[in-house]
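Subject: for your reference before the review

Hello V.,

The reviewers asked for a structural picture of the protein, and I figured it would be easier to keep everything in one thread rather than splitting it across files. Below is the amino acid sequence we used in the manuscript, unchanged from the supplementary table.
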Amino acid sequence: GATYGQKRSSSDGPDVPRALLYDAAHTDTWFLVQSAIDYIEGAAADANRPGWVVHLSLRAPHPPWVAAAPYHQRYPAHALPECVRQPDADREGAVHPWLSVHLARGRNRSHEDPRRHRLLQASYYGLMAEVDDNLGRLFDRIKALGEWDETLVVFTSDHGEQMGDHWMYGKAGFFDESYHVPLIVRRPGGRNSGRVSAFTEHVDIMPTMLDWLDVAVPRQCDGHSLNPFLVGDEQPEGWRDAAHWQFDFRDPEVEVALGIPQEDCLLDVIRDARAKYVHFAAGLPPLFYDLKADPGELVDLSARRDAATRMSEYAARLLSWRMRHADKTLTHYRVSRETGLSVRP
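And here is what came back from the structure prediction:
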């Protein structure tokens, strides 16, 4: 039988990645969405159920990046965005010892073949389109059941994807591409549309759902309800002014290459609208980016004397934040990230 991610034997052209062996009606994305539809239909038909909750977790887009037809050719490989990165991986890695070690690994070096990278990128975009279409199928069914106007929809992702930016694949480290994920919330009776630029975090999702259900939010919740953004234009008083996250990069190869023990293989980040400060344990040098002047995070300012005062300010803010959250358990590269909150009708 076919193996997971197996491709067709031939391509539809040099600019098109090979499609998945089986078609789009037999992918895990289709199956999972159909399972959600079946469950919602059953719940809607059961008069004894007061409502339903579905946590639909889709794998795609995810390795292996192989899209089913027709999604494999939805985006021509030559027409996709260029990577944000230094001219070569060696210059990118020279920014920091950890980054140099990380970029030396085989997975990251594999995209130095530009054609291979473009085909992977096209497959990734195709998988995103497949998710979009299947979510449309789900939403259409909810509307047909007459339950759309009573359904809160929250769409987000657990992490981002470097996809060649900074010569990296996957998610790791401190760059925005790994942490800046989508967050789209549709609340019945809320604003018709809008975009919020304030910093949000995944810990805000639970309080948002409970608040919408008019259920008390437990005091131990770290996050805050997003409903004020969904019903009005004013940002709530005291809303967070930055995002924070921690990345645990423990790995035997990395530990040996950097000459540090595993308990020191950590970095902490504070990122606001102006700048990003990255603090490493074990005496590894910090990083500092002026995001207003350098949104692509290509110029580290940590060694510049004129940046020392700003760096000290951000380091103090990070320390204060960590002290306030000292009793919290930080999740491996999924703690807190900036998202652009969009509201859709």
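For the response letter, the relevant points are probably these. Residues 61 and 127 are 5 Å apart (CA to CA). The radius of gyration is 22 Å.

Happy to draft the paragraph if you're swamped.

O.
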